[in-house]
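Hi all, long-time lurker, first post. I run a small reading group and we've been trying to get comfortable going from sequence to structure in the token notation. Rather than ask abstract questions, I figured I'd post a concrete chain and ask someone more experienced to write out its structure so we can walk through it together at our next meeting. Sequence below, copied exactly:
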Amino acid sequence: MSTTTVPVPAATGTAAAGAPDPGRARRRRALAQWGFVAPAVLFMLLFFGYPLVRNVVMSFQHYTPSTFFTGKAPFNGLDNWRNVFGDDLFGKALGQTIVFTIGSLAGQFGIGLGMAVFFNRRFPLNGVLRALILLPWLVPMVVSGIVWRRILDQDTGVLNSFLGLFGIAHTPWLTSTHVALLALILVNIWIGIPFNMVILYGGLQELPREVHEAASLDGASAWRTFRSITLPLLKPVITVVLVLGFMSTVKILDLVLALTDGGPADATQTLGTLTYQNSFVQLDFGAGAVVGDILILISAVFAVFYLRASRNDGK
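-- Answer (accepted) --
Happy to help. Here is the structure in token form:
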């Protein structure tokens, strides 16, 4: 009687040796991902992380010009912070920064939104006009400030010469403590309108046409359609425009230096110019670092607000 021999399968370890290891594949994939991310992380640490930490440390040090030669910057606790908060100029600069930021954002956003809605329609030379409106945004801030300083000059400025044709007396736009901050806000609005218009125009272009057509068929007016449909759909873009506009406006420096240099009588002093004055005019680097930390903290708060708003809009 013959017997049937059943083949014995190979050992489990031998079979597994020839198969790919899932754990090793995952590790290699993770390593490759970190390899792509590493340059960006290194860049952020070197050019953002280190200066940020260094600025925070400096705000607790007695940092003087001699420190650059001796390397000695003894810690002085909260002395720098007490000196800054005890200075009346800090409170004045903080208030003027708030007024300047709110006024600039309101004007830039309101006019930019109106122009975005206007250019959202098709008409001849639409593209050419939009390109021309971008010029104030493309010109360097310092150049814009110098040009506007000549325009707003009390005696020889173009604006006062034009207003004089209508019998309006010359206005000291940049030399009056009551008008200088307003002039600064108006110039910043002129500079920021193109950015707001471009971003909001792009958002309007992405809105679904079917929704507006349905509202029109239902008899909704243009204002009702804009208020009830366009603005809610445009909310994520509006959030981006306002937050980015705030973060660039609250720390503005070059425009103020070019127009008024913080004057007259500190009437246009902001937190940005106060940082510059403390650090590079009075050479009190510790006080300048304190104001810089405050600006960073304010920007960080609005960055967190932006991230939370974006996450909520995505749900």
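A couple of things your group might point at:
The longest helix spans residues 22-58.
The chain has a mean pLDDT of 87.
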